[in-house]
Amino acid sequence: MNFSYYFLLIGVPLIFGLWAQFRVSSTFNRYKKVSTASGLTGAQAAQQILSASEIHDVSIVAIDSMLGDHYDPSKKQLSLSTDVFYGNSISAVGVAAHECGHAIQHKAHYPPLHWRNTIVPATQFSSQILPFVLLGGFFFHLTNLITLGIACYAVLMVFQLITLPVEFDASSRAKLILQKMGIIHTPSEIRGVNAVLDAAALTYIAAFIAAVGNMIYLLMVRRDSR
Predict the structure, then answer these.
(1) Position 73 confidence tier, pLDDT thresholds 50, 70, 90
(2) Does the active-site annotation cover 189?
(3) Which partner for 215 in 6, 22, 33, 153 could form a disulfide, CB atoms 3.0-4.6 Å apart?
(4) In what order do the strands lie in the sheet with 70-72?
(5) Alpha carbon distance, N-terminus to C-terminus of the chain
(6) Catalytic-role residue among 54, 99, 167, 189
(7) 213 within domain boundaries
(8) Does a structural domain hold residue 44?
């Protein structure tokens, strides 16, 4: 296969993904040093947001995972990294509010969140077998394994596609509710929260582009092998 196709489908998404990761990390670290006027920690902001949204059955816990913040709908648990849980920075309240956005989606039965939760088992299975499928397909030149790899990437692509509206909606909810509740209110705080959440959105876009690029690449490999 022409190297230019490989670079376009694999290299460019990889570079974009690395840049997105750098952007979210650097933006988070920048605003981690800027305290909010309200003085609320991420955990306190999350608790206030959940209470205001009449969500009383979601626990908030601290986890030792840098940028590993997430909401688990099966456990109804909001897991916040230590910087977010204990920090009173713009980054902390922005990320905490974003994760609360997922809890609010869960309560409101937001359809894309339900679709994403439904496809999670298939996504996990595809991610686990994909390295072995690709290794076997390329090493032994087995077309059937390459076809299976295409199917795995198709599942991942659908998952990442559904993830986009879920994450964008959670960020939109976070930006609005933080201002509505007065957790942030100055222009500089609003810009900071927007910067943190918009940077995080790039990682989801990058993951979708990577899945599409890999699937197209495997389709071309299978075509050339026939």
Answers:
(1) very high
(2) no
(3) 153
(4) 59-63, 77-81, 70-72
(5) 13
(6) 99
(7) yes
(8) no
Which structural domain range is residue 95 located in?
Answer: 3-36+90-225
In-domain check, residue 114: yes
What number of other Cβ atoms are within 10 A of residue 32's Cβ?
17
What does the pLDDT look like over 11-65, one tens digit per residue? 999 999 999 999 999 999 999 999 999 999 999 999 999 999 999 999 999 999 8
* Three-state DSSP class for residue 37: coil
Query: Tokens 């439904």, residue?
Result: 118
Tokens 């209110």 -> residue: 185
State the pTM of this model: 0.91
The yes-or-no verdict on residue 121 having pLDDT over 60 is yes
Please give the tally of structural domains in the chain.
Answer: 1
Q: Find the radius of gyration of the CA atoms of the chain.
A: 20
Give domain status of residue 210, yes or no: yes
